[in-house]
Amino acid sequence: MSSQQILKQAATTLTTNDKAESDHLTDNWQQVKAQVLQACAQMTRQPNKVTLLAVSKTKPAEMIATLARQGQRDFGENYLQEAIEKIQALRERPEGKSIVWHYIGSIQRNKTRDIAEHFDWVQTLEREIIAKRLDEQRPAELPPLNVLIQVNIDNEDSKSGCLPAELPALISAIKHYEHLQLRGLMIIPAKANTDAFARTKQLFEDIKREHPELPQWDTLSMGMSDDMSAAIANGSTMVRVGTAIFGARA
Question: What's the rounded Cα separation, in Å, for the pair 30 and 24?
Fold first, then answer.
């Protein structure tokens, strides 16, 4: 076999492998979407009221592009520098223009400017000082940054988030920031504690009743690959799914 034939065969093999990986990714995504639809049907909820957030941390931009071409819009990233590289790589591509980027990692003070400049949503707000910095650093030409307050619903030392008792003061502060749009709550409950979903839903409804001046208080981000059906059953409007779509992470 000539060297030219070897190169051609290698290129064909690479293309075939890429297609197989793309098909597998799309199949996973479609299965997760079907699970969301089934969970909504069981609770007689409208499927368009539950957003699927594809958690793409550690996964390459090409995998995001593949799903974006299929119609997936919302993607969540934990690691800021990695996320910015993907955002910049996809920004000018046709499939990248429709992507809605969510920051779902911990927020350090020295990272707020990059978050404010590159993301559409922040789901992990837990302190007023961070809210203040995001508001000040959000570019004026961009729409308000959608924010969720992360609640440490089970009071775990290992988890970030404000305690439920701290919510009133934090909401009172955030709602006045011109460049932030307060949309709701996010939780990461303790393992096997689906009761946390019901308690968070009650918190969400209590805040909605007590703060009628928040017309866009509409998002309850809870539920991941292992417990998204239980979360939807308890009122989640956004599930964050990574492994079930992208596979295990290295």
Answer: 10
What is the distance between the alpha carbons of residues 64 and 242, in angstroms, rounded to a whole number?
Answer: 12
- Rounded (5°) CA angle 98-99-100: 120
> pTM to 2 decimals?
0.91
First to last CA, the chain: 37
pLDDT in tens, 3-45: 565 445 544 544 666 788 899 999 999 999 999 999 999 999 9
| Overall residue count recorded for the chain in this entry | 250
> In terms of CATH architecture, what is 3-246?
Alpha-Beta Barrel (3.20)
User: What are the residues facing 148 on neighbouring strands?
Assistant: 184
Token pair 């793309």 is found at 22
CA nearest to 76, candidates 221, 174, 236, 179: 221
Give pLDDT tens digits for 113-153.
Answer: 999 999 999 999 999 999 999 999 999 999 999 999 999 99
DSSP at 98: T
The pair of three-digit structure tokens given for residue 124, joined into one six-digit string = 């992990």
